[in-house]
Amino acid sequence: MKKLVVLFVLVLSFLAFETQAQEKGKKAKKEKAKKEVKSEKEKAEKEVNSEKGKAKKEVNSEKGKALGNQTVSFTSSVQCDMCKDKIEKALALTKGVKSSEVNVEANQISITYNSNQVSTDDLKKVISETGYDADDVKANKASHDKLPKCCRKSGE
Ligand SMILES: [Cu+2]
Fold it and tell me: Looking at residue 91, which CATH number applies to its domain?
């Protein structure tokens, strides 16, 4: 009789152990599935976001065109790379200027700008106030005279 009880207890504890193990396994499976679903969601979200970003960029560049991005070129009194740096920096700080490029050898400043935000007269003024000529607008004298000697127009 005692033996039977012991056997019974053993069987019971074995069953209990088995159920526990099964439960654990189920839980782990569920969690794994959850994780997979989550990562799928994240992936999808990322894709949507990058698509959105792309679309936005396209819209922006379309907008830029619609707003009137233009390129203009002025003849200037640039002498060296220091002048180039100075002018490009001044233009970079000017609202409406998208980009600028100073060609020292050709004495040319070319600027891509948004014509709804800044005018060519404004651009010439910025260059003049930096100490350089821009086509018909001569360099602001005070600014020009403050430039290092190598950057001043010869004879002035
Ligand atoms: Cu210079």
Answer: 3.30.70.100
